[in-house]
């Protein structure tokens, strides 16, 4: 078996067996990774490579934001779910603007905000009690 095939198989099994909270954390990690790759595209001198790197990775990040948005349970999640939905929509708009205008400011803002949310989510998973309290405090910081 090829090393990449083993890694792909491991990732697939991880996705299929992870609890929902861990899946959200994986989405946040993927979002941050693609945003970092998009941001690094601004370092390329070749305009084609620069634009393709920024564009393709920004689209991947937007796909993850869309997935996070559509999987929110607004009925059970209450105000927190609504706040996250608003934040995800805002981030999507910032990424769109950043991609169209080829301006890294939107990417950097989204990286900063989603990192706060990701860290709060991770902390919440670790604590496994008072599920809303840890994330709500840090979410206020991300939406400020």
Provide a compact summary of the structure.
With 144 residues, the protein is mainly alpha-helical.
Q: What's the overall average pLDDT, rounded?
A: 86
DSSP strand content: under 5%
CATH class: Mainly Alpha
Number of domains: 1
Which residues form runs of ≥5 with pLDDT under 50? none
For the terminal residues, how far apart are their CA atoms? Answer: 49 Å
Structural shape: globular
Helix content, binned percent: over 70%
Strand-helix topology:
Layout: H1 3-17, H2 20-41, H3 47-70, H4 74-101, H5 104-127, H6 131-143
What can you see in these coordinates?
By secondary structure, this protein is mainly alpha-helical. It has helices at residues 3-17, 20-41, 47-70, 74-101, 104-127, 131-143. The protein has one domain: Four Helix Bundle (Hemerythrin (Met), subunit A). Helix 2 runs antiparallel to helix 3 (47-70), helix 3 packs antiparallel against helix 4 and helix 4 (74-101) runs antiparallel to helix 5 (104-127). The longest helix has 28 residues, at 74-101. The protein starts with a helix and ends with a helix. 22% of the residues are buried. The model has no long low-confidence stretch (mean pLDDT 86).
Short key terms for the protein model shown above:
144 residues, mainly alpha, Four Helix Bundle (Hemerythrin (Met), subunit A), 6 helices, 88% helix
């Amino acid at each position: 078996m090829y090393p990449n095939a083993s890694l792909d198989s491991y990732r697939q099994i991880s996705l299929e067996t992870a609890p929902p909270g861990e899946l959200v954390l994986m989405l946040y990690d993927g979002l941050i990774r693609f945003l970092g790759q998009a941001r690094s595209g601004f370092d390329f001198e070749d305009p084609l490579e620069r634009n393709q790197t920024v564009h393709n990775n920004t689209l991947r990040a937007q796909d993850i934001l869309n997935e996070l948005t559509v999987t929110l349970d607004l009925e059970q999640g209450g105000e927190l779910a609504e706040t996250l939905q608003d934040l995800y929509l805002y981030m999507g708009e910032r990424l769109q603007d950043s991609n169209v205008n080829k301006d890294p400011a939107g990417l950097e803002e989204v990286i900063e905000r989603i990192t706060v949310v990701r860290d709060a989510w991770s902390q919440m998973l670790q604590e496994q009690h008072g599920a809303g309290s840890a994330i709500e405090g840090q979410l206020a910081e991300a939406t400020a």
